[in-house]
Target: PIG-L deacetylase family protein
Amino acid sequence: MTESKITQLQPLPGDWQRALAVVAHPDDLEYGCSAAVAAWTDAGREVAYVLATRGEAGIDTLDPAVCGPLREREQRASAAVVGVGTVEFLDHRDGVIEYGTALRRDIAAAIRRHRPELVVTLNHRDTWGGVAWNTPDHVAVGRATLDAAADAGNRWIFPELVEQGLEPWNGVRWVAVAGSSSPTHAVDAAPGLDRAVRSLLEHRTYIEALTDQDPEAYVRDFLTETTTATGKRFGGTPAVAFEVFGR
Ligand SMILES: [Zn+2]
Model:
């Protein structure tokens, strides 16, 4: 098992200026890595978010036509808390995102628009570790993002993008996968942890539908537990883990 081979996590490379995070749903970034995003924007780096869906199928009691716009507003507010002003939606359908060339092309186009050195995505693997099964949307978007990092640099894979004025961008140096069952690297979560809590709390409608607990206690407990657990493999400081694929 690869998990057991890596005992200590390495610091994520820091010599970059622009990051693009590509995930399936509103809240995917806030459940794991917004403490890292806060640290990056504090350091003057640019981070933009691209979401494949508006999370319109995420709340049982809300019709998708109502839920989508509401979750979009919550996502923009939660991004703003950690210094991210650019949030785009690709308008794939929540719950039934299909891995394939349409998704790869949309993500490659976003990479060409934003020209990041670091791309961040969410767990593309089958499980969260052990027998905690991942969802098909996360697997599809994670895999398509890993693929699109290369597609974005190839003029001939999606020639229609060049016709639209999106020249190839071959500058992605790493794809960092949050929530992976096989992490390799980490980012200190301590400076950004309070903002990460506030950022996740912005998804209030979703969280109130999810748990009977007080939302703030639920969010703080969740993020404290996960960052403390990662910190055991990162010198004892709370941390956000990533599986990093170099390019
Ligand atoms: Zn999700």
Summary: The domain at 2-246 is CATH 3.40.50.10320 (Rossmann fold). DSSP finds nine helices and eight strands in the chain.
